[in-house]
Amino acid sequence: MNFSLKKDFRLGVATASTQIEGGDAGSNWNAFSAEGKIKDGSDVSRATQHYRLFREDADLLASLNIRDYRMSLEWARIEPEEGVFSDEVLQHYREELLYLKNLGITPLITFYHFSHPLWFEAKGSFAKRENIGFYLRFIERCLARLGDLCSDYITLNEPNVFASMGYLSGEWPPEETSFFKMIRVMNVFIEAHISAYSLIHRVRSEAGFGASHVSFAHSMRVFTPFRKSIVDRLSASLQRFLFQDGLARACFTGQFRFPFRNLGHVKRGQYADFIALNYYSQSHVRLWRGTLPPRTPVNDLNWEIYPPGLIECCERCFAMMPVPIRISENGTCDNDDRFRARYIAEHLELVSKSALPISHYYHWCFIDNFEWKEGESARFGLVHCDYETQVRTVKQSGHFYADLIRHGGMNDDMYRQYVAGQTYKLANSGKESINRVDAAGVKN
Ligand code: BGC
Q1: Which residues' Cβ are closer than 6 Å to ligand 1?
Q2: Could you read off the pLDDT of 419-438 as tens digits, one per residue?
Q3: Residue 53 lies in a domain
């Protein structure tokens, strides 16, 4: 098995501030974990101490040949009190960006990745349209200090995930369980994205910082009916529309379909310079719920592993908005690094064969980190973090990734060294799958 990526294809990694920085930033997640709401009892203030260790981490990125880095800014640190911006924290991010630049690493900055200051939470956060101005002011202040060091931005990470986890299932803060509120939050997010998109372009161009590339990171999955029944088919289409397509169309183009509503005066237009797509899994829908068919390959969180879905999702987005595509997240929870290399190889092989204009792939995640409600017990990193000692160790999948970048793809030797023999767990069977390519008779 081998494949070559397009000549200018960029392989990077992604992180998010709350998940790696550590410390008490005064965010909704600090409060939530301090209340003991994380499944394994861990606290977000530990994480991987990246705020302190960012130089070590940047050196590690460079040593793995990584030159594209998606990261986020911690709003709660930058604006600890309403209207009070910390020069020290902005200076910290400036130093981090300069450090990356000196190593030849290009950042892609996310302004909002699920966490915000507690004062913003107290105001009702993104459930209220009148709060959008606070988010925009935060972006403007960041651009004034950092905007010369970065040209590529993500306004919001996965508005659909935050809205459904925080307002429908109630598993994340603020633990609400109202369908109508979830839709309201999505509507506010749409307007926030579109306003931020225009703001970033305007501010950077007025400051003479050069061209900007802006999008929002959209979480997509494949919704497949579990049975052929009309109920499962309808449910899958409805979930696909509510969870992803309706919101994506509104964010990309300013065109709203019920229940998405134009709360402000958004004009139709183009509000993304590239598609930023986060893809992990497929859902088989039975009635309203996700159900695992027997013998489906799954990861350590029991998420289905379905590589073709990555391209299917890219196609769906591209049909709505034909602009270049970046896979802004893709990766898997594999606590012992037993199948991550195979997962990466299978997804990238399909990317290499696709005719779509996919320009970047950011692996989630660079390093093991605080996985929201799962805490420290779900490992997604190419680099292992010992949370007690904060020692970093590059995993086999991390070495594989460095080789993928060095070679612009995977050759047979790499396949034999890293991928051959890796198996996935099969749902509800207690068995392991054999590697697709091994099964086709390739000798290891
Ligand atoms: C999020 C990340 C998260 C990852 C794995 C994405 O939905 O953007 O923050 O860690 O999935 O769950």
Answers
A1: 16, 19, 157-158, 161, 219, 278, 329, 364, 371, 380
A2: 999 999 999 876 776 554 44
A3: yes
Q: Which tokens is 326 given? A: 């970046």
Using the mean position of ligand 1's atoms as its centre, give its distance from the Cα of residue 380 in Å.
9
Separation CA 378–CA 143 (nearest Å): 33
What is the pTM (predicted TM-score) of this model?
0.96
In the DSSP assignment, the letter for residue 308 is: H
End-to-end CA distance of the chain: 10
Residues 6+ apart with CB under 8 A from 176: 166, 167, 168, 170
Over the chain, what is the mean pLDDT? 96
Atom 9 of ligand 1: nearest residue by CA position: 16
User: φ and ψ at 78, to 5 degrees?
Assistant: -70, -35
Tell how far the Cα of 146 is from the centroid of ligand 1, in angstroms.
Answer: 25
Structural domain count of the chain: 1
C-beta of residue 285 within 8 angstroms of C-beta of residue 413: no
CATH of the domain at 10: 3.20.20.80
Please state, for a pLDDT cut of 90, what percent of the chain lies above it.
95
**Quick check: is 144 in a domain?**
yes
3-state secondary structure at position 120 = helix
Ligand 1 closest atom vs CA 369? 10
Instruction: Please report the beta strands in 287-337, taking only residues with DSSP state E, as ranges in sequence order.
Output: 289-290, 297-298, 325-330
What distance in angstroms lies between residue 293's CA and the mean position of ligand 1's atoms? 24
Distance 123 CA to ligand 1 centre (A): 25
Q: Is residue 442 part of a domain?
A: no
Atom 10 in ligand 1: residue holding the nearest Cα: 371
Quick one: average pLDDT of 376-405?
98
Which atom of ligand 1 sits closest to the CA of residue 333? 5
Q: Which domain holds residue 364?
A: 3-434
Alpha-carbon span 110 to 437, nearest angstrom: 37
Which residue is closest in CA terms to ligand 1's atom 3?
371
Please state the three-class secondary structure of 346-403 as a single string: HHHHHHHHCCCCEEEEEEECCECCCCHHHHHHCCCCCEEEECCCCEEEECHHHHHHHH
- Residue type for position 113: H
Amino acid letter, residue 226: F
User: Judging by DSSP bridges, how do beta strands 289-290 and 391-394 pair with one another?
Assistant: unpaired
